Fold:
Amino acid sequence: MVYVIADDLTGGNATGVMMVKKGFETFTVIPGADRPLSDLSRYDCIIYPTDSRGKAAEDAYDAVLSAARQIDINAVGLYSKRIDSTLRGNLGSETDALLDHLGGAYTALAVPAFPAAGRTMTEGHLSVNGIPLHRTSAARDPKNPVTASRPDRLMALQSKYPCASVYLDDIKKGPERLGRQIGKLAEQGARIIIFDAVNDDHIETIARAAFLSGRPFAAVDPGPFTAALAARIKPHKPKLHAVKRSPDTSPLKSLAVIGSVNSVAAAQVDKLNCSGRAYTAYIDTAPLMEGGVSRDGEIARVCADILKNGAGSAINCVVSCGVDPDRRVPFEPYMQRLGVTAEELSLSINAAIGSIAKKLLGSGAYGRIFTSGGDITVAVCRSLGANGLRLVDEIVPLAAYATLAGGAFDGLAIITKGGMVGDENTLMVCLDYNRTS
Structure:
């Protein structure tokens, strides 16, 4: 079994559908769902999101360590610590937790690159579509800003373990020589080794070298390296959950739920609105933070708006007003007045948006749902009573197609995407796939 511990649900799904393409039956557990992992023994790969990207470092450590202990170590053929493709979150403390669980013989092999999504590593620097990471929108992420483009510097700040870097010149020398280098660095005390990679061939070389090194290891990456390793430990087989692609003649519509508050999500929503194919309702987050009658009133208002005014549109979309910087509601006054933390306010907002999704789906008008943002996806799945996702396919890099498992909406088609994934057209691409799957 391949066991992927992810800091975020949508990111975990992105890795999971890469595993599906390699022939692995893959299941993502909804954080907090009451379903023992022993029930999932028929799956080749389990994705376990810890929902820890925005947590304090020590809490993220505890979450990953707890996740690692959920499965007997002897049942796992490959451990993977899924990290964000833009290095947000607790890279160091979460890697430490996995290493502490596995023991002193293990080395974490970190390959942050995701070439198909434009994430490449050269001379220790991560770039997104050729732009240094610290100059992209990831640096301005409201919850998890990234201030450096070098993963080794972030690891050095966050991890207690020695870290080493391997650059392209060494990777180009081939897997045998690279395998010996991995062994030597590990013998010298490096517990985390970070690799450059510009294309998938480089990642394949690192994967071959990992096995040739003769050292026990765990993968740390956003997905491609884990998939390359997994392909070497299990033969490819047909996907059991594959769906037949055919035009969708169902009258049922698509529901899109977007809670991301960054420029990428904003551009995608603008593109959708300009298409003329969707009716969009914006959620005022202020009453959601107020709670009580204000919260219930806003949920009812948004649902009534969509069901009345969006009846003639093939796509209905509900979007947090925070996607527009001018409409973003500051948390501080509510934190002070209500005596709560920013995380508690975020959870309250997300839960309310999940309730909106449940009420709309309960109308029977929708045959599929799209969610953008890991926190929103978790909230929606919890609201619907799902305990997991059966992963089916990759639509574009970092966007996954799946069906809900458990609850009243079992089997419902769902597409999940990270809020910062793709360009202005990606939301439309995902919704078009959703209409033809």
About this structure: Residues 239-249 have pLDDT under 50 and may be disordered.
